[in-house]
Design brief:
Helix content: 40-55%
Strand content: 5-15%
Structural class: alpha/beta
Largest sheet: 5 strands, parallel
Shape: elongated
Distance between the termini: 62 Å
Length: 641
Amino acid sequence: MGNLLDRFHESYSAKQSVEMTLEEYLQLCARDPMAYATPAERMLAAIGEPEIVDTRSDPRLSRIFSNRALRHYPAFDGFFGMEAAIEQIVSHFRHAAQGLEEKKQVLYLLGPVGSAKSSLAEKLKLLMEKYPIYALKGSPINESPLGLFNPLDYADVLEQDYKIPRRYLTGITSPWAQKRLAEYDGDLRKFKVVRIQPSVLNQVGIAKTEPGDENNQDISSLVGKVDIRKLKLFAQDDPDAYSYSGGLCIANQGILEFVEMFKAPIKMLHPLLTATQEGNFKGTEGFGAIPFQGVILAHSNESEWQNFRNNKHNEAFLDRINVVKVPYCLRVHEEVKIYRKLLDHSSLTAAPCAPGTLEMMAQFSVLTRLEDPENSSIYSKMRVYDGENIKDTDPRAKTIQEYRDFASPDEGMQGSSTRYAYKILSQVFNYDTQEIAANPVHLMYVLEQKIESDNLPEETKRKHISYIKDWLAPRYADFLTKEIQTAYLETYSEYGQNLFDRYVTYADYWVQGQDYRDLNTGESYDRAMLNSELEKIEKPAGISNPKDFRQEIVNFVLRARAANGGKNPVWTSYEKLREVIEKRMFSNTEELLPVIAFTAKGSAEEQKKHESFVTRMLSKGYTEKQVRVLVEWHQRTKKSS
């Protein structure tokens, strides 16, 4: 406990304000460029250098990203499937830090509900807390000390003596600093500088503004207003009578988040024009402009953006916005990671979740977000987007680039939200009254009920139901069949390898046109007998051209042996033959149903087999209750088909 409390105290103390003279500050600038860094530079430093991922070394990533080198930013770990949006955000800060046009633009995140816009905004605000701000002591807007120096008069000496580049001098001083300057009779030595830590909780350098009622909201929420309590001491246009409580005042040298920006009246947005373009804004009283060196981050949904963009009166503002699209995730693997992240931050993290549950939820979500492809199934498109190679199983499947070229640029901006998936999963985990757990059968039921009860257009409702009945349910039935069959066969892997080795041996001798003699039994097989044995494995799988198939398998195994010390590869290593062997293994399992069923058993041996089956299913990640539910669903499905 002591170590924890000491650590907290040390961290808290390190973030407290540190006071110094103006001369000491300038000397610090000569040693440390972060002392005068812009908010964009501090943000870029907080994000850090990216890790370069060579997608060529990963077949799945290679197909998704076309072998490109991928930048991964550890600061954004937990934002899955958002590489493009994150790269654009980082590029905005990189260009702004370089003094390019982005320095004068609003960073605007555009996306559908539940696409992680707010989460990205929260992450950026947390990153802004990492590096301190240096400001004039007592300044109500945390203004930079460099604002005191006119670049026309002092840029050369500051660059020569303190290594401060000319572009960091704005020449804009706040009305508060101008009044202090007059009081000090121009003696800059009387100014003090403080190092302060930006803070979301304390509203230091980081602010959040939301649109209010159109009838009573004005620009004061951005620029502040006069403090009527101080009018007894100061004139109304005195800088000390002003309350610098507006978002632009608080977020100077930091970041201002404007939530649902385009829901605000246009008159309220006007201060943002000069704040972004000129680095200052006017208050509500008759004194000089207030400097602003900060980042403006806005976000809203697409409907508000479309309304704002279509209004020609907003053209001047549109030119000051850098739009970054934040669509829904379109890759099943990454969507599953999002759900796991949700569960890990809840009490459900330890609750049983049957294999395939999160994958099915992710598949449904992605299917609703994809646009229907041309001359191909949407299910194949989903798999290709996820990096699968399905050319062998679906000849009509296109490449990922072909699917993208046919789709509109707005693909992923509509469909089922991640938040919707969270609510569905919550219902699934709590569906059974006897245990908190989730499985795909309950998921399909809950999904169908939710779709039917939602106020969706009839066409959308029909399409979503078809995703479940036409794609998800049949494929889950195949998956569950394999799960049950592999749990039923105790020696599944050994049995499969034996079949594989025997098939390869027979095929090799058959291709060479030679007789085969079994060294263990002494039995001989001529070419006709070899063909008969091979067909026992091939026919259940429906192999239409056995000659070519056998030649292909033999060639594959010979290459594999050369790289494997002369040993046969694992029987699951070649997809085509794996499927053939599995169909052979499970073609004669009529005894399977009485063993797996949760009914009274006719003998002690059957009961023992059933218990062994359940045990192996439990080892796969199911609960006993789930095994019962899934077996019963499997039996109903097989009977109906």
